[in-house]
TrEMBL record:
It is found in: Secreted, Extracellular space, Extracellular matrix. SUPFAM superfamilies: L domain-like. Residues 35-69 form the LRRNT domain. This is Keratocan. It comes from the Eukaryota.
Length: 343
């Protein structure tokens, strides 16, 4: 091993241009490669990355100081210690998926002031970690055992745009305006496969993608989406929604482009907003479709609508219901841009 490192060093001593090609000073480049832990890989062609995945590691090894991308998935790590990243102040990306992590010691991420992506999926966390760096843009915590979001835990995370909390144990009282405070630029939030029975409260007004599949939600307040003026993609598949739980105009907001309501208990097609482009209603209990009732434009003005002003629906999925062909003529008259219907 010593001989191999010596030959390696000699090779790069006569080829300093290779280090410069990675936008690193030669000394930093060599320190990065020679400082790579024995259980990890630090490819010369990608010197800012350190691969320690699938090594049965129980502790985070010493990280060379110029590491940007750290891959520690599929190990046996139980705790992220306070000094785990103390030497790695340039980290941008940490992947700790599929470990046995139950918590992070206070100050564990204090030195990672440039961290952008943090992956902690498939661990044993019971709470959202505290003291996350303000530089964070994506936080993935899916398939843990999280049942609480401490108040203020997202304070200062103004750059966070993606929050993944799918497959946890969150109940209605965990997702509140207090617990979500601080996420002023969030775009996507995934709360699928939790234990919610009502629509989550306190979501940022910047939310564009809302995923709530696989909960036990039975109804949506009539003014719920007025608090989410930018929401464009809504997934409510596999809940307990019936028509009694959907006020007539609950989805009538101009920003919605895609609405998924598959595998619920609907018996009628809800009113479709004019701007909606994709609608998923498969595997409900719908027996018929009345094009006149669900059309967002009244029949007396429909004939005067130019094509560009017509309802925007292009894709409609209705399979898994009790609907038989043919497709009602009124449906095609209303939704002139409709290109695909699955029955």
């Amino acid at each position: 091993m010593v001989l191999l490192l010596s030959l390696f060093s000699i090779f790069f001593l006569v080829n300093p241009a290779l280090a410069q090609s990675h936008d690193m000073p030669y000394e930093d480049y060599m320190a990065q490669l020679l400082g790579c832990p024995k259980d990890c890989r630090c490819p010369p062609s990608f010197p800012k990355a350190m691969y320690c995945d699938n090594k049965a590691l129980k502790h985070i090894p010493t990280i060379p100081p110029h590491t940007w991308y750290l891959y520690l998935q599929n190990n046996l790590i139980e705790v992220v210690s306070a000094d785990a990243f103390r030497n790695a102040t340039q980290l941008r990306w940490i992947n700790l998926n599929r470990n046995h992590i139950t918590g992070m010691e206070e100050g564990a991420l204090a030195a990672t002031l440039d961290l952008v992506h943090l992956y902690l999926d498939d661990n044993l966390l019971t709470s959202v970690p505290a003291n996350l760096p303000s530089s964070l843009e994506q936080l993935r915590l899916s398939r843990n055992r999280i049942s609480k979001i401490p108040p203020g835990v997202f304070s200062g995370l103004e750059r966070l745009t993606l929050l993944e909390l799918q497959g946890n144990k969150l109940q209605d009282d965990a997702v509140t305006e207090v617990s979500m405070k601080g996420l002023s630029n969030l775009i996507q939030i995934n709360l699928a496969k939790n234990q919610l029975t009502t629509m989550p409260q306190g979501l940022p007004i910047t939310t564009t993608q809302l995923f709530l599949d696989g909960n036990a939600i039975e109804k949506i307040p009539s003014d719920y989406f007025k608090g989410l003026p930018k929401v464009a993609f809504i997934r409510l598949n596999r809940n307990k929604l019936g028509n009694n739980g959907l006020p007539r105009n609950v989805f009538n907001i101009p920003s919605i482009l895609e609405l998924q309501l598959s595998h619920n208990q609907l018996t009628e097609v809800p009113v479709i907003p004019s701007g909606l482009e994709h609608l998923y209603l498969d595997h409900n209990k719908i027996k018929s479709v009345n094009g006149s009732d669900i059309c967002p434009v009244s029949a007396d003005v429909l004939e005067d609508y130019a094509m560009e002003r017509a309802p925007k629906l292009r894709y409609l999925r209705l399979d898994g219901n009790d609907i038989n062909p043919p497709i009602p003529r009124e449906l095609m008259v209303c939704f002139r841009l409709l290109r695909s219907i699955v029955i």
